[in-house]
Amino acid sequence: MRSFTLSTKWTALFVLFTALCCLFTPTVTVKHELFKTCDQAGFCKRNRAFADSASATGWETPYKIAPESLSWKNGQLQGTILKTINKNGETVRLLITISFLESGSARVTIDEEKRQKGEIDLRHNSKARKERYNEAESWAIVGGLELSKTAVEFRDAATSTVKYGPDGKFEAVITYAPFGIDFKRDSATQIKFNDRGMLNVEHWRPKIDKPEPEKKEGEEAPAPEVQTGEDESTWWDESFGGSTDSKPKGPESVGLDITFPGYAHVYGIPEHAGPLSLKETRGGSGNHEEPYRLYNADVFEYIMDSPMTLYGAIPFMQAHSKDSTVGVFWLNAAETWIDIIKQKEAHNPLSLGIGSRIDTKTHWFSESGLIDVFVFLGPTPKDVTKAYGELTGYTQLPQEFAIAYHQCRWNYNTDEDVKDVDRKMSKHQIPYDVIWLDIEYTHEKEYFTWDPLQFPDPIGMLKQLDKSERKLVAIIDPHIKNNGYHIVEDLKKKDLAVHNKDGNIYEGWCWPGSSHWIDCFSPAAIKWWVSLFKYDTFKGTMHNLFIWNDMNEPSVFNGPETTMPKDNLHYGNWEHRDVHNINGMTFHNATYQALLERKKGEIRRPFVLTRSFYAGSQRLGAMWTGDNQASWDHLAAAFPMVLNNGIAGYPFAGADVGGFFGNPEKDLLTRWYQAGAFYPFFRGHAHIDTRRREPYLAGEPYTGIITRALRLRYALLPAWYTAFHEASVDGTPIIRPQYFEYPGDEAGFAIDDQFFVGSTGLLAKPVVKEGADSVDIYLPDEEIYYDYFDYQKYSGRGSKTISAPLEKIPLLMQGGHIIPRKDRPRRSSGLMKWDPYTLVIALNKEGSAKGELYVDDGETFDYQSGAYIHRSFEFKDGVLASMDIGKKGKLTDKYLKTMKGVRVERIIIVGAPKEWEGKKSVKTGKGEAGLEFHGEEGGKASWAVVRNPGVAIGENWKIEF
Ligand code: NOJ
Question: Does residue 782 have an active-site annotation?
């Protein structure tokens, strides 16, 4: 039984205290005592102890495949693993399925036979489901499960070998005893399962209540019975911070070691604040002491460089070496921890370390659920990200406004306030697309209502925004105020809320005070949620209103670790423990579905921002990194976090520009805007207690510099949108770390403060250090790089110093690329729709360049029927050509007609050949256009400009220089 019950009064005080902390804490640091360390999480402690035993000499894994149980059918190997559970040799039967997929990925699933058959008894007459949770797949996976038709299996007395993947180059060698799997590519081992013997499936067992040993008079109390050596103290219940978790199923964790031989770097497993290249976690100088934790939580005032959990979880990891990238995806929705160690392995004992290689050894364990792991054998980072995306889906192609600038704060106080900010942004000619409303817009935190005094005319407000194609995003959280208002009454009546362990509606505390939580695992709850967003239900909304989902970890102020008790029950009677990390995604999904169906016939791409996420959330909208602080270290931490999210398949990411807590100094705010202009999701946001900081308030020179950063983002929107399109079709990150673009260049493997934007060749390193007036940027090759703004040339592999006074963003164009832009400053991206393009051609050493542009209506799903322009540009041998690379669909011609008048207004050629000096014109096919040449000057490249070449963006053409 949960022993922790707060009286209403105390809870109210607690909430007030939490809120006050938010308001008045100037120097802030996480409250460690609110979150478990590994030692305080029973299963984490047990699995680490198990790992230590497994590392000792003489250890033998208790898991063996029963060879006679194996069967092979249609690309799938199935069999029984026998787990020896005591010295008498008694065993428990586990079912293993290894699936080889048509895509070249492999999947290993291990479950318990007894639990699959429902042959277990739960304690306390619990209503919880008996099986191990096996529905994570239905939330995370959307494709790529087709079984291989070409995989073949061979068996001998000790092993089973399967050849699979492209040209049969992949191989899985399954050893029966001790059980282990080696995954190979071109005969070389890339990934090893259970190589260190840490496979652990805590099988179901009944709780045997042993009578208290009797103490006879005059005798010492007998010593407690010696246990099996395992720490059983948290098997049957577990307390932390005043809450007790009843564990009706007893111990049920799963764990496995996964080794990457020859790989010195691993990336992924967001969300953590720390470097892109993950650190070791079992102590030692510069290493973490704790494993990386994945247990979605509202971590107030989170700290830097820490493996502590944050708001979202993607259990996907890439391992990288000079000539190979591989990956694993641990499909489990329960609390998960990952230990990482790196070990030098000498090839030969006499080599004294010369020629030694580094192996990264990881150990994954989750509190409940299945062992369900996907294996990707690369060989490039792009192959791994693509294969992962085939399973979990690619980034949703957002509406174009969503990748422009968002102006948010907690809170814009009235509809007049919103309109005022909107007018002032226009007056100062600062572009923005979206203004946001935080929780205070509601009538006393009742979602789907407006505060009648502060927001008497939401439609008037939305209409003003609509005039300049601007939008509003309003927050809707998953906690529903428990005060009898119509929404909560409906929720209760329809029984669509999460239940507590006794089967009653769960009650906890969040912003509104006492609340219930919608259970978006339930199809009926999703249906109901969808109905709440219809324009005639959510009054005061119209087509330019979109949604922000916050607190969906879920955040529960009086819950254990600020979230829900693990023994709460969801739809289907799954315990919250089993599904926790997916919870946020189910809420995001319900809201996404709702925005698809607001009005019959009106189908626009939804925009929903989420704080909590899981593998697959990339299909539903953007995420942000939560409550950061207005400090330089938080500014610096954001890029590694956003980059990491990108390689874990969720690139539509950003951090609160300016920092959420605290008041940024003006130079910090300015630098943050310059950095934010390179976040795929670009939003300024601030805590309710901070001073107002809309860009026009900063004053000069800051406002001017911020405006230029914003305009840079807007000018480059065609390039950003093209990068989003690429992510939406093959999962390639939008901003890309050095190793991703130059996988063979070891010097770049740990770099996480500079990055490439899409495939544009733009290489950025925004300033994130206080007082810095230059940055050292690393060039990975011998290509020419041009400063984006003044065409200063840099070349030669290695580090280059770029001067970066406050007004300057260090941004280079790599020779060999063509970058599409729109240079006319406007109030919003919507108003740029029909604007002409500028093409910037950065010539490489050979005098050529290539680029791409993707354009569609930026709003609807018509692009799925061919309503888009996809072009490849090439400059070679003095000729610039535009070629169609799109596929034709039923709406192609109609769309192209609407785009007929959209032309190229300017072509800038950076690094223009000297011979062009004196050249006055170029041939455009229809006639001629003027050319203006500027010679090289003091290290700055020569350049030329062609104005009005008279070519349309959607057509094939050639220009001869
Ligand atoms: C927490 C969110 O992280 C923050 O962005 C928001 O302003 C507050 N909740 C209030 O809704």
Answer: no
